[in-house]
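User: Assemble these into one structure.

Assistant: Restating your components, then the assembled model:
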Amino acid sequence: MARPRSFNQTAVLTAAMHAFRRQGFAATSVRDLEAAAGVTSGSLYNSYRNKRSLFLAASEHYNHAVLERRIQDHAPKGSGIEGLRQLFLSLLHEPDGGSAGCLVTNSAVEFGDTEIPNFVSDGFDVLRDTFADRLGDDRAEAVALLALYQGVLVLIRAGYAAHDLKKMITHYFENLEERHGR
Amino acid sequence: MARPRSFNQTAVLTAAMHAFRRQGFAATSVRDLEAAAGVTSGSLYNSYRNKRSLFLAASEHYNHAVLERRIQDHAPKGSGIEGLRQLFLSLLHEPDGGSAGCLVTNSAVEFGDTEIPNFVSDGFDVLRDTFADRLGDDRAEAVALLALYQGVLVLIRAGYAAHDLKKMITHYFENLEERHGR
DNA sequence: CACATTATATAATGAACGTTCTAAAATGAA
DNA sequence: TTCATTTTAGAACGTTCATTATATAATGTG
């Protein structure tokens, strides 16, 4: 009945997600997005109302395809504290030394002075609930892990020595296991 | 010999610091800075080469006037773990619910994809060295506190429930004191 | 093959940006 | 008071931006 889309919607979302994660929302221009996704602005605006709408879609995609996926890969239900340790350690082996950081963390900071998008609070909730569950419902400790997780991502993005972070994580989880009786 | 400056240099630096802290470097326009500092761009460009140069000066000012000042106020040398607890708790009582966050944390994220300005690494070092000293030179724990500190600032900026953060900090420091034998 | 419909490419638009330029104003020295 | 010097105010410049408008291309259907 009409001309079909000539691009893969998920591929565009993934490309936009990477660009936004690396450079932030405001610093990523529509031309950057065209180049990253291999699609011209005409097509982007045909699928999304504006840059913000594409950003929000890419961010939801991030929460599922990257964040929840990472949890599933390293700290699935039942994996306990050991799963959480692996989850934290996995952050140290990201491409480019992890300089892209996390889209949730980065957006929390970028939008902190205005209105925080829902996907940020959602990302925090997913992490905290995962931590609490794997710890056997220790809420205060889960919030501590949430803060530690965000902080590690800030430090990694800023190029903080990965070796020091690894030692820190190792020590932290040794203590955590002792305190949670093993 | 010539016309004197008609504005207070520290006041301009402080105003710029607040603007950059709230909105970030890129999102703060020179016109924003004019309004915040009560000085026109002509004067700003007469004193600073460009926006970035003013930003770097304002950031150095932040490290001394805000960060080191906060340490001195809450966790001076000799104050031990109790000082650190007060330092962390003080973050929960910032104006506007702390939505401005920390200029070091915010800049670590904003510039994470390019070159990190020196004041960011300096800020990290000051914090980590302070933590290590007050803990009696426990480096791994100091790095954990550095990450926790950055994470708390991210969460506060994103409007995370201050009540939960307070409980978390309280629990964290109870554990810390036990582990450091008291 | 037309036709309706939707996608695509790119030009055009208007606003905002950082920076530079220009002229006036303010000072101390001569 | 005249001069050299520096600061100040704000207009002007060129660029980049997100978005809209426009024209063309591709499809299934009749």
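Chain B has one domain: 9-179.
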